[in-house]
Amino acid sequence: MQDQQDPIQHKVVVITGASSGLGEATARLLAERGARLVLGARRTDRINALAADLMRGGTQAVAVTTDVTDAQQVQALVDTAVQTYGRIDVLINNAGLMPHSPLDRRKIADWDRMIDVNLKGVLYGIAAALPPMQAQKSGHIINVSSVAGHKVRPGSAVYAATKSAVLMLSEGLRQEVKPYNIRTTVISPGAVATELPDSITEPDIAQAVRTFYRSAIPAATFARMVAFAMSQPDDVDINEILFRPTSQEV
């Protein structure tokens, strides 16, 4: 009996926020599985170094400097995938930030950043990916929410609101793309080791979150969730994955 080809092999995957954390870990795992990658992130040096490292290992990878708050840059990221590989099979809307603070501190600039990156950035990715996926009558859009999208805690109201919105957006998208054979997945991680706590601008909140994150699990855990959803047969659509460290109570 011949070995079956890995279902991830040769898939064209676009990842936002790919320069570190969840995005980088996912890029590395999918590269091992034979995917062709288009990596987007704001930090040009980091994204170029990651693409170069993956290419040394035999992966086809392209880096595109991308700020997801700019719809034109997100469009250019997806266009690069189509121009380079002729299609886009998977979009992973991963870019995000988490500057927690109590509402009465009125951190309006932080609120705006979270809405622009966590919600509007996802919308821009969907807007860019839908036309080519609709034309090819296939594709998979993976959006990143959070446990915070299911359960709000003091200090996380705006972050939780953006991640809850991603849940609703993903469900609406799921229903709308059925005629085009497009799959949708929303993944909600708990405490996973990333740079997210570094985006917190309030020192006391940052310290509390870092204490909470002492039990964080590796970013590779998230990457395995992505690979699981991508690896299903074409007639199986994994719509939602919610996971935490075993020790995480909330």
Can you describe this structure?
- The protein has a seven-stranded parallel β-sheet with strand order 3-2-1-4-5-6-7, sandwiched between helices.
- The longest helix has 29 residues, at 108-136.
- The protein has seven helices and seven strands.
- The chain has helices at residues 21-32, 44-56, 71-85, 108-136, 157-176, 203-212, 219-230; strands spanning 12-15, 36-41, 61-65, 90-93, 139-144, 182-189, 240-243.
- It is α/β, with parallel strands linked by helices.
Chart the SSEs and their pairings:
Blueprint: E1 12-15, H1 21-32, E2 36-41, H2 44-56, E3 61-65, H3 71-85, E4 90-93, H4 108-136, E5 139-144, H5 157-176, E6 182-189, H6 203-212, H7 219-230, E7 240-243
CATH topology: Rossmann fold
Helical proportion, percent range: 40-55%
Strand-residue fraction? Answer: 5-15%
Class of secondary structure makeup: alpha/beta
CATH class: Alpha Beta
| CATH architecture group name | 3-Layer(aba) Sandwich
Taking all residues together, what is the mean pLDDT?
94
Quick one: biggest sheet? 7 strands, parallel
Shape: globular
What is the count of helical runs? 7
Quaternary state of this entry equals: single chain
